[in-house]
Amino acid sequence: MRRGFVLPVAVLAALLLAGSLYILHMPGKTHTGPLPPLTAEEARVRDRLATHVQTLAGDIGERNLERYPALLEAAGYIERTFTDLGYAPADEPFESRGRPVRNIVAEKRGDSAVAGIVLVGAHYDSVPGSPGANDNGSGVAALLELARLLADQPLPCTVRYVAFVNEEAPYFGSPQMGSLVHAEGARARAERIRAMLSLETIGYYSDEPGSQRYPFPLNMFYPDTANFIGFVGNLGSRQLVRSALRTFRQTTAFPAEGAAVPERVPGVGWSDHWSFWQAGYRAIMVTDTAFYRYTPYHTEGDTPERVDYARTARVVAGLARVIAALAAETCGS
To answer: pTM for the complete prediction?
Structure first.
Protein backbone atom coordinates (compact mmCIF):
# COMPACT_ATOMS: atom_id res chain seq x y z
CA MET A 1 0.00 0.00 0.00
CA ARG A 2 1.29 3.45 -0.82
CA ARG A 3 2.22 5.59 2.16
CA GLY A 4 0.08 8.42 0.88
CA PHE A 5 -2.95 6.16 0.92
CA VAL A 6 -2.51 5.00 4.52
CA LEU A 7 -3.38 8.32 6.13
CA PRO A 8 -6.73 8.83 4.31
CA VAL A 9 -7.77 5.28 5.17
CA ALA A 10 -6.82 5.77 8.81
CA VAL A 11 -8.71 9.06 8.96
CA LEU A 12 -11.76 7.47 7.36
CA ALA A 13 -11.64 4.58 9.83
CA ALA A 14 -11.37 7.01 12.74
CA LEU A 15 -14.31 9.03 11.47
CA LEU A 16 -16.42 5.90 11.03
CA LEU A 17 -15.56 4.78 14.57
CA ALA A 18 -16.36 8.20 16.00
CA GLY A 19 -19.65 8.29 14.10
CA SER A 20 -20.61 4.82 15.32
CA LEU A 21 -19.84 5.74 18.91
CA TYR A 22 -21.89 8.93 18.61
CA ILE A 23 -24.88 7.07 17.19
CA LEU A 24 -24.78 3.86 19.17
CA HIS A 25 -23.04 4.53 22.48
CA MET A 26 -25.67 4.68 25.19
CA PRO A 27 -25.53 5.30 28.96
CA GLY A 28 -25.75 2.57 31.57
CA LYS A 29 -25.72 -1.18 31.17
CA THR A 30 -28.56 -3.39 30.04
CA HIS A 31 -29.95 -5.97 32.44
CA THR A 32 -28.53 -9.46 32.09
CA GLY A 33 -29.43 -12.74 33.74
CA PRO A 34 -32.74 -14.02 35.09
CA LEU A 35 -35.64 -11.66 35.53
CA PRO A 36 -36.88 -11.10 39.10
CA PRO A 37 -40.43 -12.13 40.04
CA LEU A 38 -43.14 -9.68 39.07
CA THR A 39 -44.09 -7.24 41.78
CA ALA A 40 -47.72 -7.11 42.89
CA GLU A 41 -48.22 -3.95 40.81
CA GLU A 42 -46.58 -5.50 37.75
CA ALA A 43 -48.87 -8.51 38.08
CA ARG A 44 -51.88 -6.18 38.06
CA VAL A 45 -50.47 -4.41 35.00
CA ARG A 46 -49.99 -7.79 33.28
CA ASP A 47 -53.61 -8.74 33.82
CA ARG A 48 -54.93 -5.37 32.66
CA LEU A 49 -52.74 -5.45 29.56
CA ALA A 50 -54.22 -8.82 28.67
CA THR A 51 -57.75 -7.45 29.08
CA HIS A 52 -57.05 -4.43 26.87
CA VAL A 53 -55.40 -6.46 24.09
CA GLN A 54 -58.12 -9.12 24.18
CA THR A 55 -60.79 -6.42 23.86
CA LEU A 56 -59.06 -4.61 21.01
CA ALA A 57 -57.69 -7.53 18.99
CA GLY A 58 -59.81 -10.45 20.16
CA ASP A 59 -63.31 -9.05 20.70
CA ILE A 60 -63.18 -6.09 18.29
CA GLY A 61 -60.55 -7.43 15.89
CA GLU A 62 -59.35 -5.71 12.74
CA ARG A 63 -60.02 -1.97 13.06
CA ASN A 64 -59.48 0.53 10.30
CA LEU A 65 -61.52 2.52 7.80
CA GLU A 66 -62.28 -0.67 5.89
CA ARG A 67 -63.74 -2.03 9.13
CA TYR A 68 -65.23 1.28 10.20
CA PRO A 69 -67.64 0.04 12.92
CA ALA A 70 -64.73 -1.77 14.58
CA LEU A 71 -62.59 1.37 14.41
CA LEU A 72 -65.36 3.32 16.15
CA GLU A 73 -65.76 0.58 18.75
CA ALA A 74 -62.05 0.65 19.53
CA ALA A 75 -62.13 4.43 19.93
CA GLY A 76 -65.10 4.11 22.26
CA TYR A 77 -63.31 1.54 24.41
CA ILE A 78 -60.24 3.78 24.75
CA GLU A 79 -62.37 6.79 25.60
CA ARG A 80 -64.32 4.87 28.27
CA THR A 81 -61.13 3.53 29.80
CA PHE A 82 -59.60 7.00 30.10
CA THR A 83 -62.83 8.20 31.69
CA ASP A 84 -62.86 5.31 34.17
CA LEU A 85 -59.31 6.28 35.15
CA GLY A 86 -60.49 9.77 36.09
CA TYR A 87 -59.45 11.64 32.95
CA ALA A 88 -61.65 13.87 30.80
CA PRO A 89 -60.73 12.62 27.31
CA ALA A 90 -61.24 14.92 24.35
CA ASP A 91 -61.76 14.15 20.69
CA GLU A 92 -59.47 15.46 17.99
CA PRO A 93 -61.75 14.88 15.01
CA PHE A 94 -61.01 15.11 11.30
CA GLU A 95 -62.27 13.57 8.10
CA SER A 96 -60.64 10.68 6.28
CA ARG A 97 -61.99 9.33 3.00
CA GLY A 98 -65.29 11.04 3.65
CA ARG A 99 -65.75 9.60 7.15
CA PRO A 100 -65.24 11.18 10.55
CA VAL A 101 -62.35 9.74 12.53
CA ARG A 102 -60.70 10.90 15.72
CA ASN A 103 -57.67 10.87 17.93
CA ILE A 104 -58.48 10.49 21.65
CA VAL A 105 -56.56 12.83 23.95
CA ALA A 106 -56.29 12.62 27.74
CA GLU A 107 -54.14 14.90 29.88
CA LYS A 108 -52.79 15.06 33.39
CA ARG A 109 -52.04 18.73 33.92
CA GLY A 110 -48.62 19.54 35.31
CA ASP A 111 -47.82 21.59 38.38
CA SER A 112 -46.63 24.43 36.14
CA ALA A 113 -48.92 25.84 33.48
CA VAL A 114 -45.94 26.93 31.34
CA ALA A 115 -43.52 24.02 31.86
CA GLY A 116 -44.44 22.08 28.75
CA ILE A 117 -45.71 18.67 27.73
CA VAL A 118 -44.44 15.11 27.71
CA LEU A 119 -46.55 13.29 25.13
CA VAL A 120 -47.09 9.53 25.03
CA GLY A 121 -48.88 8.08 22.01
CA ALA A 122 -49.92 4.84 20.36
CA HIS A 123 -52.01 4.12 17.28
CA TYR A 124 -55.20 2.11 17.70
CA ASP A 125 -55.89 1.16 14.11
CA SER A 126 -54.66 -2.15 12.68
CA VAL A 127 -53.46 -2.96 9.19
CA PRO A 128 -56.10 -4.49 6.88
CA GLY A 129 -56.19 -8.26 7.28
CA SER A 130 -54.82 -8.32 10.83
CA PRO A 131 -56.45 -8.18 14.28
CA GLY A 132 -53.41 -6.20 15.44
CA ALA A 133 -52.74 -7.67 18.88
CA ASN A 134 -49.10 -6.69 19.03
CA ASP A 135 -49.35 -4.05 16.28
CA ASN A 136 -50.64 -2.11 17.99
CA GLY A 137 -52.94 -3.46 20.66
CA SER A 138 -49.89 -3.84 22.89
CA GLY A 139 -48.98 -0.16 22.48
CA VAL A 140 -52.52 1.04 23.21
CA ALA A 141 -52.76 -1.25 26.24
CA ALA A 142 -49.49 0.20 27.51
CA LEU A 143 -50.78 3.73 26.91
CA LEU A 144 -53.85 3.06 29.04
CA GLU A 145 -51.84 1.43 31.82
CA LEU A 146 -49.33 4.27 31.90
CA ALA A 147 -52.23 6.69 32.27
CA ARG A 148 -53.41 4.62 35.23
CA LEU A 149 -49.99 4.29 36.87
CA LEU A 150 -49.25 8.02 36.68
CA ALA A 151 -52.75 9.34 37.35
CA ASP A 152 -52.05 10.38 40.94
CA GLN A 153 -48.36 11.26 40.67
CA PRO A 154 -47.57 15.00 40.87
CA LEU A 155 -45.38 16.03 37.93
CA PRO A 156 -44.12 19.43 36.75
CA CYS A 157 -44.92 18.73 33.10
CA THR A 158 -48.31 18.06 31.66
CA VAL A 159 -48.40 14.44 30.49
CA ARG A 160 -50.57 14.00 27.43
CA TYR A 161 -51.78 10.57 26.32
CA VAL A 162 -52.96 10.30 22.72
CA ALA A 163 -54.48 7.31 20.95
CA PHE A 164 -53.88 8.01 17.27
CA VAL A 165 -56.00 6.86 14.36
CA ASN A 166 -54.72 6.09 10.83
CA GLU A 167 -51.10 5.17 11.41
CA GLU A 168 -51.18 2.14 9.12
CA ALA A 169 -51.00 2.22 5.32
CA PRO A 170 -52.32 3.85 3.21
CA TYR A 171 -52.40 6.75 5.67
CA PHE A 172 -48.82 6.72 6.97
CA GLY A 173 -47.08 9.92 5.93
CA SER A 174 -50.27 11.43 4.55
CA PRO A 175 -52.32 14.42 5.79
CA GLN A 176 -54.86 11.87 7.09
CA MET A 177 -52.39 10.28 9.52
CA GLY A 178 -53.74 10.93 13.01
CA SER A 179 -50.41 11.69 14.65
CA LEU A 180 -49.49 14.14 11.89
CA VAL A 181 -52.78 15.94 12.44
CA HIS A 182 -51.95 16.22 16.14
CA ALA A 183 -48.30 17.21 15.67
CA GLU A 184 -49.10 19.90 13.12
CA GLY A 185 -51.88 21.20 15.36
CA ALA A 186 -49.50 21.34 18.31
CA ARG A 187 -46.96 23.28 16.26
CA ALA A 188 -49.65 25.72 15.07
CA ARG A 189 -50.63 26.28 18.71
CA ALA A 190 -46.95 26.76 19.63
CA GLU A 191 -47.22 24.00 22.23
CA ARG A 192 -44.03 23.16 24.09
CA ILE A 193 -43.86 19.40 23.62
CA ARG A 194 -40.57 18.62 25.34
CA ALA A 195 -40.58 14.90 24.55
CA MET A 196 -42.74 12.45 22.61
CA LEU A 197 -42.73 8.66 23.12
CA SER A 198 -44.41 6.47 20.51
CA LEU A 199 -45.39 3.03 21.85
CA GLU A 200 -45.20 0.73 18.85
CA THR A 201 -45.47 -3.08 18.87
CA ILE A 202 -43.99 -3.74 22.32
CA GLY A 203 -45.35 -7.17 23.27
CA TYR A 204 -43.19 -9.94 21.75
CA TYR A 205 -39.99 -11.40 23.25
CA SER A 206 -37.87 -14.51 22.77
CA ASP A 207 -34.84 -16.02 24.50
CA GLU A 208 -33.82 -18.04 21.44
CA PRO A 209 -30.44 -17.10 19.91
CA GLY A 210 -30.92 -15.80 16.40
CA SER A 211 -34.47 -14.58 17.09
CA GLN A 212 -33.53 -10.92 16.52
CA ARG A 213 -32.61 -9.26 13.21
CA TYR A 214 -31.63 -5.68 12.30
CA PRO A 215 -31.11 -3.50 9.25
CA PHE A 216 -27.48 -2.97 8.27
CA PRO A 217 -25.31 -1.73 9.94
CA LEU A 218 -27.09 -2.18 13.28
CA ASN A 219 -26.70 -5.96 12.98
CA MET A 220 -22.98 -5.44 13.64
CA PHE A 221 -23.52 -3.93 17.09
CA TYR A 222 -26.60 -5.36 18.80
CA PRO A 223 -27.53 -8.78 20.30
CA ASP A 224 -29.23 -11.48 18.21
CA THR A 225 -31.65 -12.51 20.97
CA ALA A 226 -35.08 -10.83 20.99
CA ASN A 227 -35.39 -10.44 24.75
CA PHE A 228 -35.08 -6.65 25.01
CA ILE A 229 -37.11 -3.49 24.51
CA GLY A 230 -35.71 -0.86 22.15
CA PHE A 231 -35.54 2.95 22.36
CA VAL A 232 -35.03 4.41 18.89
CA GLY A 233 -34.75 7.95 17.58
CA ASN A 234 -33.23 10.09 14.87
CA LEU A 235 -30.06 12.11 15.35
CA GLY A 236 -32.04 15.16 16.41
CA SER A 237 -33.62 13.13 19.23
CA ARG A 238 -30.37 11.55 20.42
CA GLN A 239 -30.45 13.19 23.84
CA LEU A 240 -34.02 12.04 24.41
CA VAL A 241 -33.06 8.46 23.51
CA ARG A 242 -30.17 8.63 25.96
CA SER A 243 -32.24 10.15 28.77
CA ALA A 244 -35.06 7.62 28.42
CA LEU A 245 -32.73 4.64 28.17
CA ARG A 246 -30.60 5.81 31.08
CA THR A 247 -33.60 5.95 33.39
CA PHE A 248 -34.98 2.64 32.17
CA ARG A 249 -31.67 0.84 32.69
CA GLN A 250 -31.14 2.40 36.11
CA THR A 251 -34.60 1.55 37.44
CA THR A 252 -35.84 -1.55 35.61
CA ALA A 253 -34.50 -5.11 35.65
CA PHE A 254 -35.24 -5.79 32.00
CA PRO A 255 -32.93 -5.77 28.95
CA ALA A 256 -33.03 -2.53 26.98
CA GLU A 257 -31.12 -1.25 23.97
CA GLY A 258 -31.05 2.16 22.32
CA ALA A 259 -29.92 3.89 19.15
CA ALA A 260 -30.13 7.34 17.58
CA VAL A 261 -29.55 6.83 13.88
CA PRO A 262 -30.17 8.58 10.57
CA GLU A 263 -33.78 8.51 9.46
CA ARG A 264 -32.91 6.67 6.26
CA VAL A 265 -32.23 3.45 8.20
CA PRO A 266 -35.25 1.20 7.40
CA GLY A 267 -37.81 1.10 10.20
CA VAL A 268 -36.38 3.92 12.31
CA GLY A 269 -39.17 6.34 11.43
CA TRP A 270 -42.00 3.90 10.83
CA SER A 271 -44.47 5.00 13.47
CA ASP A 272 -46.13 8.05 14.98
CA HIS A 273 -42.91 9.62 16.27
CA TRP A 274 -42.13 10.42 12.62
CA SER A 275 -44.98 12.94 12.60
CA PHE A 276 -43.42 14.85 15.48
CA TRP A 277 -40.06 14.98 13.73
CA GLN A 278 -41.84 16.69 10.85
CA ALA A 279 -43.19 19.28 13.28
CA GLY A 280 -39.78 19.94 14.82
CA TYR A 281 -40.24 18.06 18.10
CA ARG A 282 -37.94 15.54 19.75
CA ALA A 283 -39.57 12.13 19.55
CA ILE A 284 -38.59 8.47 19.98
CA MET A 285 -40.13 5.07 19.42
CA VAL A 286 -40.32 2.41 22.12
CA THR A 287 -40.56 -0.94 20.35
CA ASP A 288 -39.84 -4.65 20.36
CA THR A 289 -38.55 -3.97 16.79
CA ALA A 290 -41.69 -5.38 15.11
CA PHE A 291 -40.93 -7.29 11.90
CA TYR A 292 -37.25 -7.59 12.83
CA ARG A 293 -38.33 -10.26 15.32
CA TYR A 294 -42.11 -10.80 15.12
CA THR A 295 -43.07 -13.22 12.35
CA PRO A 296 -46.88 -12.59 12.49
CA TYR A 297 -46.36 -8.85 11.93
CA HIS A 298 -49.15 -7.47 9.70
CA THR A 299 -50.81 -10.88 9.31
CA GLU A 300 -53.95 -12.58 10.55
CA GLY A 301 -51.70 -14.39 13.03
CA ASP A 302 -51.12 -11.26 15.13
CA THR A 303 -53.48 -12.51 17.85
CA PRO A 304 -53.73 -11.84 21.62
CA GLU A 305 -52.17 -15.13 22.77
CA ARG A 306 -48.89 -14.21 21.07
CA VAL A 307 -48.30 -11.22 23.34
CA ASP A 308 -46.01 -11.80 26.32
CA TYR A 309 -47.98 -9.93 28.97
CA ALA A 310 -45.58 -10.57 31.85
CA ARG A 311 -42.59 -9.10 30.06
CA THR A 312 -44.66 -6.27 28.63
CA ALA A 313 -45.79 -5.43 32.16
CA ARG A 314 -42.16 -5.04 33.22
CA VAL A 315 -41.61 -2.68 30.28
CA VAL A 316 -44.70 -0.62 31.14
CA ALA A 317 -43.66 -0.29 34.79
CA GLY A 318 -40.25 0.90 33.63
CA LEU A 319 -41.77 3.36 31.17
CA ALA A 320 -43.81 4.92 33.96
CA ARG A 321 -40.54 5.72 35.70
CA VAL A 322 -39.07 7.03 32.45
CA ILE A 323 -41.99 9.39 31.89
CA ALA A 324 -41.81 10.69 35.46
CA ALA A 325 -38.08 11.29 35.08
CA LEU A 326 -38.51 13.04 31.72
CA ALA A 327 -41.15 15.29 33.25
CA ALA A 328 -38.70 16.24 36.00
CA GLU A 329 -35.67 16.61 33.72
CA THR A 330 -37.27 18.57 30.91
CA CYS A 331 -39.69 20.70 32.88
CA GLY A 332 -37.83 21.19 36.13
CA SER A 333 -38.50 19.67 39.52
So the answer is: 0.93
On the question of pLDDT at 107 being above 90, the answer is yes
Q: Which of 69, 74, 62 is nearest to 104 (CA)?
A: 74
Report pLDDT for 96. 98
pLDDT per residue as tens digits for the range 249-266: 999 999 999 999 999 988
CA distance 167 to 179: 7
Q: pLDDT value at position 201?
A: 98
